[in-house]
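Today's session is about reading a structure prediction critically. Students often jump straight to the picture, but the first step is always the sequence itself: look for stretches that repeat, for charged clusters, for runs of hydrophobic residues. Only then move on to the predicted structure, which in these notes is written as discrete structure tokens rather than atom positions. Here is the chain we will use throughout the hour.
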Amino acid sequence: LRLRARQPAPEAQESQFLRTQYKGIALVASALLLLALAVAAWLARQWARPLVAVQHATARIAHGALDVRIPLTRSDEIGDVVRNVNTMAESLQRMESSRRRWLADLSHELRTPLTVLRGELEAMEDGVRPLDQAAVLSLKEDVLRLGLLVEDLHLLAMADLQALPCQFAS
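Below is the predicted structure for this chain, in token form.
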């Protein structure tokens, strides 16, 4: 007698089929998850790259490098931020240039009356010019002119600090 091989029960075939399906679904889900993570990492780098450039540029601007400009490659909100940082840097560079030019002009304006005062005092000291009432009045006028320049400078400095003194008049 020989035993005949038994046919697997239909339930066993269904179990095998479901097991195969679950393995396939798990494999596809894992592959899709890895693909989604790779795409997300690539997108994050693409979005973060201009923000990192903005961060580096603003740090350099804060340390005084006002000639920094960021290349504009986007037209979205990040591009607007890049454009605003570039505009801010240009504005700061123009203001710094104006401030330097103003200081040079100011030092020239202060030097002139000081040179006149020094010259007159040296002339009096050497006996070239007599020390009389006219010489004292001339020196006084130069000192008053110099005082007005210094007062104007002080007023501008107070305006820059937004601490101008107010005097109400009726």
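Discussion point for the tutorial: The radius of gyration is 41 Å.
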